[in-house]
Structures are given as C-alpha cells and as structure tokens.
Amino acid sequence: MARQLEELIETPEVAPPPDVGEAPYLNRELSLLDFQERVLALAEDTKLPLLERAKFLAIFASNVDEFLQVRVAGLKDQVAADISTPSPDGMTPVQQLAAIRERLTGLVERHAKAFVDSVAPALADAGIRLSDLGSLDDDDKKHVDEVFDDVFPVLTPLAVDPGHPFPYISNLSLNLAVMVRDPVTGERRFARVKVPPLLPRFVVMPDGEQFVPLEQVIAAHLGSLFPGMEIESHDAFRVTRNSDLAVPADDAEEADDLLAAVEMELRQRRFGQAVRLEVEARMPDEIRRLLQRELELEPDDVYAVEGPLGLDGLWALYDLDRPDLKDEPWHAVTPPELDPGDDDKPDVFGALRTGDILVHHPYDSFTTTVEAFVRQAAADPRVLAIKQTLYRTSGDSPIVKSLIRAAERGKQVAALVELKARFDEQANIAWARALEEAGVHVVYGLVGFKTHSKALLVVRQEEDGIRRYCHVGTGNYNPRTARMYEDLGLLSCDDELGSDLTDLFNFLTGYSRQHEYRRLLLAPTQLRARIVSMIDGQHGGDGGGGGRPPGRIRIKVNSLVDPTVIDALYRASAAGVHVDLIVRGMCCLKPGVPGLSENIRVRSIVGRYLEHSRIFAFGDGDSRPVRYLIGSADLMPRNLDKRIEVLVPVEDPALRDRLREVLDIASSDDALAWELGPDGRWAKVATTDGVDCQAVLQRKALERARRRHGADADR
C-alpha cells in the first residue's frame, strides 16, 4: 500500500526563489524555539492572572522537554551518523546544535527567573506559598514527617560502587544525587534516589496554602535511607532522553502487524540515548562531572538551573480551586443550528439536511456538536455504518465509547487508530484493543505514513435511500483539548463529500489506487501540488492573457516549513499578490525582504487557547472569487509527504463569511499577536485598540446563540 501511495504523488514543478544573496529560509529548529519564547512571554506577563502564568511556565517546560526528546535527539543522531548535509537554511546539524544550545540557555534562565523572582513571590502574596523545609513551623514539619513515612517504602536508594554499576536513569524522572560518607572508614560513595513519578510533585501542608517540593521532603530524611552514613551533599537532577518513535517500514513489514512493531518500539524508547542533563546550579562539580560521564553527555548538554527542576509539575498548582487567580471560565455554546431548544436532544441529522454547519471550538461546544453527532449515530436504528479516523483522543473518550456501543448494536463500525501519534501511542493501543473487543473493525494506519486527517462518516438508511453524513475537522476527536485548542469542523450531508469520504475510508482500510476526489484534497498524493497551483493562480493574468490584477492569499496554519510552498509564496509576492499568513509556531519564510517577499506579512497569535485550526483562502473577492478550505494539514514536509491529510472546501456562502470573519479578527489582533520581521525576529504587536481575537470570538459565539434564543422567544 505504501508503494502504491508513493506512485500516486503529484510533484509540482519547482522554480527556485529569487536570489537575494543569502539563504531564503529561516531555521525550523530556531523558529520553534521562537515559539517557545512567545509562550514564555505569557508566563512573564504580569497582567495575566497568576495561575495562568504558572500554567504557561508548565507548558513551556513540557514543550522544551518534547523539543529535546525529538528535535535535538534527531540532530544528535545525524551527527553520530556523520551526516553534515545542511538544512534548507544552510546550517549543518553541528551548527544547529550549537545555535540551539546558545538560544536555549537564555530561555531556561528566563524561565527559572520568571518562577523564582516573579510567579513564586506573587503566589505567596496570594496565599499560595512554595516553601522550603527551613521555613516550616513544628506542626508542618510533623506533617512532612508523616508524608515521608508513606513515601519511604516506595523509595529505592541505589549506590554506585564496584558491585553496583551506575543505575539507569529513566526519561524525565526527577532524582537526587546523594554523596554519602562512611564515618568509620571515611569511604565516600555516590547514590541515586529517584523521586517517585506517581506521587504529587508538591506536598500540600494542612493549611492548604503551603507547598513543599517532594524532593525536599525526601532530602530531609536521607538519614532513613542511608542509616549510619554521613550525608555530604544532595542535589536534584533530571535526564532527558531520545524519545522519538521511529518504526522502520522493514520492521513493520517483518512484524506480525503494525501494532506489534509499535509496541516493540515503545519498549525500546525508555532506553533512548540521553540528550540533556538538568542539575541544580549549586551541584558540586564533582557530581556534575560524574553524571555527565556516566550518561555519556557533552558539557553543552548540561543545563544548570537556578530554581526547582521539572516545572511542568506546576499543573498541580493550576488545579487549585482559586478562580480569582485564573481566567474567567468560558462556557462553550451550542451553535444555533444544533440547539434543541425545549427538546432534550438535538437532531443532528435533521439539522444537516437543512444545510452545512461550521463549528468553531472552543467557542462552540464539542460535547453538543461532534460528540452529539456520534452519540446520535450510535443510538439511531437507521444508521448502518460509522467510520472514523482517531489520531489523539482522551483517556475517557465519549466518542470511542459511542463507537463501542454502535458496534455492540450491530452497526458496521470502522476506526482507523493511528498508533504512531507521538507520545499518545500507548493510549491509542489501549483504545484499539477495546474497540476490537467490541467488534469494531480497527485499522492501524499505513506503514510509512501517519493518518493525521480528522474525518468521520455516518451512513444512514432514509425514506429516499442511503444518505451519508460527514465531519471533517482541523482538530483531534478529543474533548479535553477541544476546550483548550482552537479548531474548526465542517458538518455536512453533501453527496459529493459523502462519496469522497467513502472512497477515502475504502482507501485507508482496503486496497485502492484512488487518486482523484470530488471535493477533498489529500496528502501525500496531491495536496502540495494543488496548494502550489492555487498560490500560482493568484498571479496577475488568467492564463490566457486576460490581464487580471494580482489576487490575495490568506493562510492560517500551525507551521510553515515546506520549501516548495514557501518558494511559491515568494513567487506570488514578486507577482504583486498580497499574502497574509497567520502561523502559530514554526515559520521558515522570511517576510518583507526586498526582492523576495515585500508583499508578505506573517503574524502569530499566542494566547489563552492554542491556535490550532488550518484555514486556506485564495482570491480577493473582486477579480477572483475566494476559495476557502479547512483541514488537518500544516505546510511541512512531514505533513505533505508522510501523512494522510485532508482539506475540504467550504462552499456555503454564510460559512465562508464565518471563515473570513475569523481571519479578519485574527489579522486585527493587537493584544495576543506577534509579527515576524525580515531579520527573522518576532516582535509583539504594539497595543493600540486592544483587540483580543479570542475574546472577540467568544463574544461572537454568544451573540449567535442569543440571536437564536431571541428568535425562538419571538415565535
């Protein structure tokens, strides 16, 4: 199947970008660190609610962990393999690692400083004190002793001596490096104590307002772990390992199935090569060198931190019941078309027979839209089949439970579960097995490709024959992230779209050379070529000498990295096309460069919600009608070459107006927006009108819901 797919790929003709005397692309790894800096800026923003700042500190910490586990690990693998091929921006792997080290060192220092000097003191002023043991009173110290009594049986001190080799340090675990001395012989030994990862990162004092890091609780009782020994020093450290999951095609083909190959790779992941060592800044050089040597790391792989390690644990503080220190909660609304009014349940099928529906999460409720769609399909006796792709979902997914109930009721249910969704592999394996046990036809994706598309098809028997109901989205079928990620979805019972999704699922689950689709654009077979064609179509003229003026391009994605697409955008700019790009994360295009990209503007929205939707708009509305598409694909080589991605055109004029409105509001934001300059630097948009696009979209969702309720009251 993988070979068949590769044979179908359309490759656009590539024209080189204009020669401007330097590499026309920005480095993708440094661009990703630029995004992490924009996240960190939210944690540093004293205007934000305090626990929201703590949340962004945790997000930054988690993002950097993933960056090192995947991106830095990949570069290290290239260096180990003596690969010196430069990336499109001209940097070799060695040069990239050096630049990453320089950049990341400064960000790590800012991250620690934001917590120690700003967030922690402000939390204390608000009654949430992150205390050390020395500041506790006798009652609190007694409580700490009781906590340690519960922790003690879980701890396993591991000494290093001729009979005990250096222990394996698991990925992202928090540890204590302890130096002990025998008072009788004077002999000194190094020992490692792992902080149990299943226990809360912070110990709560009885008053509910003081928190002590768990490693300090353990450190204060090391005498119980090493009785009769003198404790010379104890310092926290943390190791990050290569955790990228790579299942070679040959391995998957030789394994009984893809599931077995992924499970095997997951078992091996925990033994990945170390790529970073984090240590407390006070750690003695002797211990630091020992850890570096035993973990086979270079000095540049060691990061000394002035503050607590593992600040992703701040999520525990964010869970506190302190609404006064958080954003005002947002209660997602039900779109007017799906609001049941006085009825108990919405009729999604009936609503779709009157027209397509665009849902915009988290402003529109995921529960009363997508989940309601699947739930109704599972219960409806007229529904014959449900087919769905599942890339990431939650541990208690209502959608997966609905699929299981549908299968138990005798419906044909097919689920394509992507086992290679990074860091969600284990959860997806568990869901896949639960689905199989219920009788769902489970497919594990295509060898060599990730199925990243978000597609759902329901086949229903109706009075006039078979009708197909569809959902194509930009985000995962995950109710938890649907409350935090900004995403779009199209619900429809359009015949051509239903036929396309039927063909798509037959292609994914069966054996097919399907290439052309009526409405859908599919990666990897055609998407890059079609996007380049739509970009080129905005140049002046109409291909026949008609002399139309240049058009307009507006694109909103998570990442823009693909050189072929970037070159097409450069050509469009040179042809006078106005290009507005909203790129949340990585952007390798250089905007505003004379002779290259004068007509291109790039901005990034970073705020309360993770901007995750992908919108493509081609046309100016005057000389060319605007064509709108939404879907799962970012403009990266991995998405366009190695993933099954789907874009769907939005045809309904009212829904196109909604998409135009989303782009307009994002383009006018001056509260959350950053702009990319010709020099590759991001700058915060100067606040003038104070337009927060996410707050505006919340108001728009409420206005739509109120108009429906007002119309119902008038009737």
Secondary-structure map with pairings?
Blueprint: H1 2-7, H2 28-44, H3 50-80, H4 93-125, E1 129-130, H5 138-151, E2 158-160, E3 174-181, E4 188-194, E5 202-204, E6 210-213, H6 214-219, H7 222-225, E7 230-241, H8 249-254, H9 258-269, E8 274-280, H10 285-294, E9 302-305, H11 315-318, H12 348-353, E10 357-361, H13 367-379, E11 383-390, H14 398-408, E12 412-417, H15 425-437, E13 441-443, E14 450-451, E15 454-462, E16 465-473, E17 485-492, H16 495-509, E18 521-523, H17 527-536, E19 552-557, H18 563-574, E20 578-583, E21 600-605, E22 610-611, E23 615-618, E24 627-631, H19 637-641, E25 643-650, H20 653-668, E26 673-676, E27 682-684, H21 693-714
Parallel strand pairs: 1-6, 8-9, 11-12, 12-13, 14-25, 17-22, 19-20, 20-21
Antiparallel strand pairs: 2-4, 3-4, 3-7, 5-6, 7-8, 10-17, 11-15, 15-16, 16-17, 18-25, 19-23, 21-26, 23-24, 24-25, 26-27
Describe this structure in words.
This protein is 37% helix and 21% strand. With 715 residues, the protein is α/β, with parallel strands linked by helices. The chain has three domains: 2-22 and 523-708, Endonuclease, Chain A (2-Layer Sandwich); 50-325, 2-Layer Sandwich (polyphosphate kinase like), CATH 3.30.1840.10; 336-519, Endonuclease, Chain A. Helix 2 packs parallel to helix 4 and helix 17 runs parallel beside helix 18. The longest helix is centred in the N-terminal third of the chain and has 33 residues, at 93-125. It starts with a helix and ends with a helix.
Question: How would you sum up this structure in a few lines?
Answer:
The chain is α/β, with parallel strands linked by helices and 715 residues long.
